[in-house]
Amino acid sequence: MRLLTMCCFLFVLLALTPRVLTVDPGVKAVLTDKGLHYASHVGAAFLQENMNKVNIPDIEGDISIGLLGSVHYRLTGMTVVQVNLPEPTVSFLESTGVKVGMDGVNIALQGKWHTHYTFINDGGTFNLAVLNIGMSAVLQLGSDEHGQLNMTNSQCDSSIGGTQINFHGGASWLFQLFVNSFKGFITEEIQKRICPMIKQSVETLENGLADIPVSFRVTQNLLVDIPLLVSPIVQSSDMELDFKGEFYSVNHHTEPPFSAGPFELPQPAGFMLAVGLSEFSINSAFYAYFSAGLLKVNITDNMIPKFSPIRLNTTSFGIFIPQLPKMFPNLLMLLQLYTTNTPMTSLRSDNVTLSVSGSSKAYCIQPNNTLTPLFRLDMNISFSSKLFISEEKLKGLVVLNNFTLTLGSSEIGPFQTGSLRDALLKGIKMFLLPKVNAKLNTGIPVPVTKNIQLVNSVLKVNEGFMEIATDAVISPPEPRN
Ligand SMILES: *[C@@H]1O[C@H](CO)[C@@H](O)[C@H](O)[C@H]1NC(C)=O
Ligand SMILES: *[C@@H]1O[C@H](CO)[C@@H](O)[C@H](O)[C@H]1NC(C)=O
Ligand SMILES: *[C@@H]1O[C@H](CO)[C@@H](O)[C@H](O)[C@H]1NC(C)=O
Ligand SMILES: *[C@@H]1O[C@H](CO)[C@@H](O)[C@H](O)[C@H]1NC(C)=O
Ligand SMILES: *[C@@H]1O[C@H](CO)[C@@H](O)[C@H](O)[C@H]1NC(C)=O
Ligand SMILES: *[C@@H]1O[C@H](CO)[C@@H](O)[C@H](O)[C@H]1NC(C)=O
Ligand SMILES: *[C@@H]1O[C@H](CO)[C@@H](O)[C@H](O)[C@H]1NC(C)=O
């Protein structure tokens, strides 16, 4: 019996443990306490700016005036005149989400009052100060069946220190007499509305989250799937989001022959957030290109830089293949260059390596434009680079690690590939690498969105993944008018 209970308990525990994944995430993001505080600070500032646009629902009710019955009143057209929002308190709530609290909020409102007593209608304006409002709410975070981040307001408390109200116009002098009994009503009515308003705002936010796509196009040929694989993993000082982070070709939604491995994204001490990008994620993009047949290029003589002494024609290639100009005198050539496998990146401590296997099929172009096959060269090439971020730009230096070349097949008989390899090596070192390195020396700007800019970013390449730890500057969205 005890064993059975124990088994059940274990089973429940396993079912509840969020880290049990069937697929390892390709991309992870960690939001720290610092990031949470900054985000809430921006949020509060945005709220402060936009409080005057908040729609305040009308309040109405009846006040008893003793034996004389009751007066029906309505407070309408309430607008915020002034508001003072103190810095909110925010914290992560382990395994749940985020707790937000605010104390000592004061709001000054103005509006119109209307009363109806028997057949007498009266009205005027009023000023209302609501003092020392306190509220605290828990935002529970999760992910839905599509892998979208979702949130609900699971707990809410509110309190009001007091209200001051002044009526103007009409028989307001009479009204003012009832203010004390009235105040209680108003205070209660307002307090009753705080949590529903918070709930409503969270729902609005939640609807916004539901609109964020979990799959989108990044280039003409590439899309990325980034659903959450599990609910956010909230700990006392940070929150981790685990995304699938897999790239696919727009036209061929096929899985690569490799899969994501586990990696641990360290807490980015001192930064607001960190993003971890796995080797898998990068390689899935290469696979997408490769499987869609996009890693192919035709090279013709006019693409060879002017300064190159070697031209893409059978005369020029006579230096490497003596029989070629004899068999096909003075014809232009075409090289079909293609990868024979998915180019693979491997990330090691401070070292990004890219290995490419490819072939190059050579043709000569006959005067009638038919292509006559000549030979095929098989190549393996590997580059290594140190990558870093400086001034919010991705920079680095790429070096050639290794380059091998063999003759795969030949329609013109065998030939030695040594001098051809040396010439290609020279081309890579004198033409390709300087071009790439010039680009990496200038730097590639790290992607930013209209509202979020990354600052103080640091890139670190670790075993199996690269980590970008960063602070952010958020410019709140332009308020909708
Ligand atoms: C998120 O969505 C899932 C599936 O619809 C639901 O079970 C869960 O309660 C939601 N969680 C939150 C925090 O809204
Ligand atoms: C390369 O040239 C061949 C022969 O002309 C052609 O069939 C092929 O489509 C071209 N490939 C690319 C990527 O341009
Ligand atoms: C081939 O290249 C050589 C230089 O190596 C040049 O003199 C010759 O004109 C070129 N022939 C053709 C057909 O382009
Ligand atoms: C980087 O890694 C590759 C392969 O893992 C290795 O060949 C190369 O020497 C390394 N480069 C540096 C600078 O450590
Ligand atoms: C083009 O020229 C080559 C070489 O002269 C010849 O073998 C081939 O049959 C010709 N092709 C056509 C379509 O005329
Ligand atoms: C390239 O690498 C593959 C796999 O590592 C190997 O089978 C092949 O022989 C290599 N080719 C050359 C030209 O080095
Ligand atoms: C370069 O490639 C050759 C042949 O594939 C291999 O034997 C050698 O280990 C490679 N060197 C490095 C540094 O990767």
TrEMBL record:
**Pfam families recorded:** LBP_BPI_CETP, LBP_BPI_CETP_C
Key words, A-Z: Antibiotic, Antimicrobial, Disulfide bond, Glycoprotein, Immunity, Innate immunity, Secreted, Signal
Please provide one cellular component term from the Gene Ontology annotations of this protein: extracellular space
- Disulphide-bonded residues: C156-C195
Question: Domain Lipid-binding serum glycoprotein C-terminal: where?
Answer: 267-470
Please give a single GO biological process term from the UniProt record.
Answer: innate immune response
Entry superkingdom: Eukaryota
Question: For the Lipid-binding serum glycoprotein N-terminal domain, which residue ranges apply?
Answer: 31-252
**Signal peptide segment:** 1-22
Q: Which InterPro entries match?
A: Bactericidal_perm-incr_a/b_dom, BPI/LBP, BPI/LBP/Plunc, Lipid-bd_serum_glycop_C, Lipid-bd_serum_glycop_N
What are the GO MF terms of this UniProt record? lipid binding
User: Which compartment or compartments is the protein found in?
Assistant: Secreted
Per the record, what about its domains? The N- and C-terminal barrels adopt an identical fold despite having only 13% of conserved residues.
Tell me the function of this protein. The cytotoxic action of BPI is limited to many species of Gram-negative bacteria; this specificity may be explained by a strong affinity of the very basic N-terminal half for the negatively charged lipopolysaccharides that are unique to the Gram-negative bacterial outer envelope.
This protein's assembly is summarised as: Monomer. Homodimer; disulfide-linked.
Q: Which family does it belong to?
A: Belongs to the BPI/LBP/Plunc superfamily. BPI/LBP family.
Which PANTHER family would you find in this protein's record? BACTERICIDAL PERMEABILITY-INCREASING BPI PROTEIN-RELATED (PTHR10504), BACTERICIDAL PERMEABILITY-INCREASING PROTEIN (PTHR10504:SF132)
Entry protein name: Bactericidal permeability-increasing protein
Supply the source organism's classification: Eukaryota, Metazoa, Chordata, Craniata, Vertebrata
Q: Which gene encodes it?
A: bpifcl
